[in-house]
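Colleagues,

For the teaching module next term, I've prepared a clean inverse folding example: a structure given as tokens, and then the sequence designed for it. I'd like students to try predicting residues themselves before seeing the answer, so please don't circulate the second half yet.
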């Protein structure tokens, strides 16, 4: 399994780089990459073309441009087509080792992906996911039809979807108000 933290993006709603926010004594990119270590052979930070991070972790730069996390996922599979990809978005301050352990232990490699069901959206959570190698051609097929939404791929595929005991762990902090909420909860 290759671990990938989606650390790129413009962070326009936040007004500053979401990966630089320190919810846990270190910036969020490093924190999430370190959380993936027990489960993955290698860990990478995914970023846009020519985007570099001040980090000890290697970077996968997008080769599928302008697609956000979908482009990061495809770029990761392009580099590692025979590996599962364990993904995390940089804007999830409440993700912890316990929930990653749950995902890892319940991984179903016979399915396209293993993920959590998000009770708030009533859909699969697409970016806190273990994507199997068989997902790569499916993702490319969706792209060829004009779709670049990982959730749409999950909704229309055979996946392992799990219940999460504490749905707040799926919370995304994309604005200063959401960041402040997360910091107060820490």
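(Answer key — instructors only)
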């Amino acid at each position: 399994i290759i671990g990938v933290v989606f650390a790129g993006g413009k962070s326009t709603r936040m007004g500053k780089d979401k990966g630089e926010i320190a919810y846990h004594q270190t910036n969020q990119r490093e924190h999430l990459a370190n959380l993936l270590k027990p489960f993955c052979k290698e860990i990478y930070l995914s970023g846009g073309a020519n985007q570099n991070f001040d980090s000890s972790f290697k970077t996968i730069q997008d080769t599928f441009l302008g697609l956000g996390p979908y482009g990061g996922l495809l770029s990761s599979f392009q580099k590692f087509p025979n590996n599962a990809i364990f993904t995390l978005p940089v804007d999830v301050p409440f993700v912890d080792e316990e929930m990653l352990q749950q995902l890892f232990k319940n991984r179903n490699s016979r399915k396209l992906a293993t993920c959590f069901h998000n009770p708030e959206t009533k859909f699969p959570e697409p970016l806190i996911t273990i994507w199997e190698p068989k997902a790569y051609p499916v993702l490319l097929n969706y792209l060829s039809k004009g779709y670049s939404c990982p959730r749409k791929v999950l909704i229309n595929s055979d996946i392992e979807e799990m219940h999460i005991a504490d749905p707040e762990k799926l919370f995304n902090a994309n604005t200063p108000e959401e960041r402040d909420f997360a910091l107060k909860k820490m």
